[in-house]
Amino acid sequence: MAVEKFQLSPARSWSAPQLLGSARRLVRTHAFRLAVLYFLVFAASVLGVLLFVYWTSANFVERQTEATLDAEITGLAEQYAQRGLSGLIQIVAARSAGDRGDPMVYLVIDPDGKALVGNIAAWPSGVPTRSGWLSFGLERNVSGHSETHPARGRLFAIPGGYRLLVARDISDATAFRGEVRSTLLWAGLIALCIGLVGGTVMSRNMLRRVEQVNRTSERVMTGDLSDRVPVHGTSDEFDQLAANLNRMLDQIERLMTAMREVTDDVAHDLKTPLSRMRSRLERALTDPSGGCGQSEAIRAAIEEADRLLATFNALLSIAELESGALADQSELLDLSEVARSAAELYEPVAEERGFVLVVVAEPGVTVRGDRHLLSQALTNLLDNALKYAGGGEVAIRVFSRDGQALLEVADRGPGIPEADREAVLDRFVRLEPSRTTPGNGLGLSLVRAIVRRHNGSVLLQDNEPGLQVQLRFTVLAS
Amino acid sequence: MHLAQMKILVVEDDRETAAYLAKGLNESGYTVDCAKDGREGLFLASSGDYNAMILDRMLPNIDGLAVLGALRTADIGTPALILSALGSVDDRVKGLRAGGDDYLVKPFAFSELLARLEALLRRGAGPATETRLRVADLELDLLTRTVKRHGKSIEVLPREFRLLEYLMRNAGHVVTRTMLLEHVWDYHFDPQTNVIDVHVSRLRQKIDKSFDRPLLHTVRGAGYCLRAPE
Lengths: 478, 230
Prior knowledge:
heterodimer; A: alpha+beta; Helix Hairpins; Heat Shock Protein 90; 5-stranded antiparallel sheet; 19% strand; rod-shaped; disordered N terminus; B: 230 residues; alpha/beta; Rossmann fold; 5-stranded parallel sheet; 12 strands; 39% helix; elongated
């Protein structure tokens, strides 16, 4: 089963194939690949930094050795220039007499290669007597036993076949370099371990949150529409994703509920006229007199069918509006124009039926919307006012308040009791129990669907006396 | 042109509706061809031989609006009446924007279809640049926007002027309430209240009341007709 696929429950005891399978799954996950990539980048940068540190510190020690040697050589060269060979030999002898711990090495050899003076006994074996920089092993007696220390120095030819060696025991520098190397190695290893652990933890964490999304989707797919992705409150991308998915699920749930309600309503409200039509037709068929009575029954049946179809059309329009499947034909509309145009159409019929239709419109109240739909909403409200109010003033008002554009139709009829105001917006709700006034109970539902489509709301209020229906639209800052 | 020479193309996939349309139109004197899907409809209509076409919106193979789009792209301007089960305002407007000349929602009364079809055929034929319309002794001047009957000037409101203009352009033919709503008010839906009747009766008061012979007639169950007395 698909649900099993992403479960990495630690409580389970693992067998070898399971482990292998879970490892394979882990490798396939995006989180793992991302973690590996991060780890590689991290490792490369750590390596780079360590190499740089090592290279600069080693170089620094080497340069220091060479600087010391150069200073010595300059000093000796000055002595030689002033006092000649004998002076040089004296100086070397004086310096060689110092502490044996001194890392400096001096040696003057005669043309035969024999040591004349210096702090090492003889020319180090195996080292060519060539002028210039030299690196060689130095036999040194440290606390009773002899050790070979690395040394670096320079050999100078002195006129007369003599040669001067100035060198330095660099065993300390080498040891320092080794120390730096091992320190950096350990630091690098620790950093990489942290990187590896961090990457794994990060990837597991990410994987877990993706898993939560997956698990919720699976549960929703199997029919539990009320399930939601947990939100951790960190407001990171995963929380945003979870919140968005949850909003999507809310919308789906709402649509499903609405659909179920519509199906119930349709079944309930269309059955009556259909059975009425059927019995009428049946009576006509069995009518012994025939002729006139039959055609009357057929005409009535056609009227009934037309009403049913009109109801269906209204339902379809509402469903379409609510599902948001309409092509957007929105434009910037002046609500007062919408109001005036509808008033112009209704004015004669209102007057004939004993109403006074007035328009009070603030100029420049605009909303972005579909003119045809908003006109339809407004005419539905006017239809209702003319149908139920009986007479008196019907006012269409357009104004803006608190950043909202309002379109209002107010009549002086009986109004709607406060308790029923919310309900009348639902499909097929008609407040007359006898249902004598023609209508399908969809007018206000259509109004609400149209207004919601425009991100607005419908508010029913007491007009003291009468009914006041307010359509409120949010006005976008231009 | 004699009616029998008027060729109408009906593109409708429902066999029963197509037969009903063909029969009715034949009885009304038209020559009718039927196409049962979008592809056949497009093929037949491409000839440009028809005076008008009645086009179902939802068709197998090629959708009605796509057929219309293809024809209009090919510069074939045969007036088209879209027939559809989809009746929301949005559907109607979409149909008209796609190049339809008129829109009728199923189910429809045949009289409504006929009235609309005739209006379409007249629109294609009559000169559109007239500045003065005349029915019997009723005169409407589109430039000065004045109405006169029997030489006597009649005051009308702007909307009444447009209502009268539409009736006069379709003089001698039935215009339905829905047609008036669409063409005079640009409302592509039917309000529950019968708003048109009062407008028409007010207009009638102005143009017919003080004259012997009425021009504006109510056709029961269909609509209105402005016509010269026999």
